[in-house]
Design a protein that fits this description.
This is Trypsin-like serine peptidase. It contains 6 helices and 21 strands. By secondary structure, it is α+β, with helices and mostly antiparallel strands.
Length: 321
């Protein structure tokens, strides 16, 4: 059933198979420096076969794709636990008396450079969100690291569908020819670096992505505690993934896992919004400075990685390719 363009009702429900419930935390370390003390951050990448990717994504496959937040959960379980950290796969949050309450996330009209990301990991089809960013190659999309690579394995059938709404793809499906992520993400699934970039092929007429849909500027090593507006296509209940939503708020550190160096803003977008852009300020016209990465059950906050020198280097490699 197609969702109406009004504020959704219901309590925060981060993706049933994806978002993480933290029982207790310990062994927290200081937040990393922007460059993590490494003069030359390491970047991992792969060239992918784009042939057939657009045709692969039929309306039926797009509709049945699994929210990519499940992959963020796998990363946390794989490489981010300490002896005192207990992580379990989340379940939809339910509390008596919440029926009829509006969500924090606000329904938005489509934005030309923001869209949905579809990809295959192993034998499973997934969906995330993404954003076209300015670049030398005019073909770079920012998304979450877990929407590009999981446990060292890269996505296949990766396409970006800008301005998606209710099954419509007004600018077509843009197939990736290369995927980039910080080595720290690819090797360890470190949530500190949960950002990835895809370089897409030109369209059938030879046009570059940002020449068609536009692209956001990017910023790195910015001050913490800024006001952000995040965007995404939440697919888990109470949303259905068919329309764009946004959240606006002032960022603050993750008190549960300060070692990640991430920041969060009030937001109850669910699975499927992973990889959606964070813009500095209010609205979609600002520069991008993070992405939707993860959240905790029964806690209406969306966390995103700090875009320091490691992620800057990853972007630079992708944008110049």
């Amino acid at each position: 059933m197609t969702r109406t363009r009004s504020l959704a009702s219901g309590l925060l429900t981060l993706s049933a198979a994806a978002v993480l419930a933290l029982a207790s935390a310990g062994g927290a370390a200081a937040a990393p420096a922007p460059s993590d003390g490494k003069p030359t951050p390491s970047v991992a990448s792969v060239t992918v076969d784009a042939g057939g990717s657009a045709d692969y994504w039929t309306p039926e496959r797009m509709q049945s794709a699994v929210p990519g937040d499940t992959l963020a959960g796998k990363a946390l379980e794989r490489g981010n636990r300490s002896s005192a950290l207990l992580v379990e796969k989340g379940k939809p949050a339910t509390t008596k008396g919440t029926k009829g309450k509006p969500t924090i996330a606000k329904s938005e009209n489509p934005v030309s450079h923001i869209g949905k990301v579809f990809f295959t990991m192993g034998t499973t089809n997934y969906v995330c969100s993404g954003n076209a960013v300015s670049s030398d190659n005019g073909s770079t999309v920012a998304t979450a690291g877990h929407c590009v690579n999981e446990s060292g394995a890269y996505a296949t059938n990766f396409v970006f569908v800008p301005a998606y709404e209710n099954g419509n793809a007004p600018y077509g499906k843009w197939a990736a020819k290369a995927l980039y992520a910080p080595s720290q993400w690819v090797s360890n699934g470190d949530m500190t670096y949960d950002t990835g970039f895809a370089v897409v092929n030109p369209d059938a007429k030879g046009h570059l992505l940002t020449d068609v849909v536009g692209g956001s500027g990017v910023a790195f090593n910015e001050a913490r505690g800024l006001t952000y507006t995040s965007y995404g296509y939440p697919a888990a209940s109470p949303f259905n993934g068919e329309t764009l939503y946004s959240c606006t708020g002032t960022a603050s550190a993750d008190p549960n896992n300060p070692q990640f160096g991430t920041q969060g803003i009030p937001c109850d977008m669910t699975g499927g919004s992973s990889g959606g852009p964070w813009f500095i300020g209010i609205g979609s016209d600002g520069v991008q400075n993070s992405i939707n990465s993860y959240g905790y059950n029964r806690n209406p906050v969306m966390y995103g990685p700090y875009w320091g020198s490691v992620i800057e280097s990853t972007y630079a490699h992708a944008a110049a390719s």
